[in-house]
Write a structure and sequence with these properties.
CATH architecture: 3-Layer(aba) Sandwich
Order of helices and strands: EHEHEEEEHE
Largest sheet: 7 strands, parallel
Shape: globular
CATH class: Alpha Beta
Mean pLDDT: 91
Number of helices: 3
CATH superfamily: DNA polymerase III subunit chi
Strand order of the largest sheet: 3-4-2-5-6-1-7
Number of domains: 1
Structural class: alpha/beta
Helix content: 25-40%
Strand content: 25-35%
Length: 147
């Protein structure tokens, strides 16, 4: 697969050590993408992380509502944001990766968002993922985000 066919990968580096800031930015990013008419899949490490993010999506903004579901058989097919710890089948628009590794089957997504904060362990993990994506010729974009 050529780099022109690979998923675009955006790294968002937050100026905060707070893990809460990562989840809040994830909600804001998902909200923005949904308003543009695209679906979002948020990949978490486990079911409890999915539940925490689900809770935050209900309360992150007083002025908007972000329709979302936790991954499962009961989730309607037209729900714009799905949160889960197993990648879905089929082609998707955006993957927001909240795990420490590059997931398999990134080719299922048009775009991938990696959100990291200023925590040294998180920065090191983000750098390793960036280097791995770069080695595989993914088109990479980097954004400094002040929070």
């Amino acid at each position: 697969m050529s780099s022109a066919e690979k998923s675009r990968v955006d790294f968002y580096k937050l100026s905060s050590h707070n893990e809460h800031a990562v989840k809040r930015f994830c909600c804001q990013l998902a909200d923005k993408v949904v308003k543009l008419g695209h679906p979002v899949f948020v990949l978490t490490s486990n079911a409890s992380e999915s539940q925490l993010l689900d809770d935050m999506m209900w309360t992150f903004s007083d002025s908007s509502f972000l329709p979302h579901e936790i991954q499962g058989d009961a989730a309607p097919k037209d729900t714009p944001v799905i949160i889960g710890h197993q990648l879905p089948d089929g082609r998707q628009h955006l993957l927001i990766n909240l795990t420490d590794s590059i997931p398999e089957h990134t080719d299922r997504f048009e775009r991938i968002a990696e959100i990291i904060n200023d925590d040294p362990v998180t920065v090191a993990s983000g750098r390793a993922r960036y280097a791995n994506y770069n080695k595989q010729d993914y088109p990479l974009h980097y954004h400094d985000i002040k929070v």
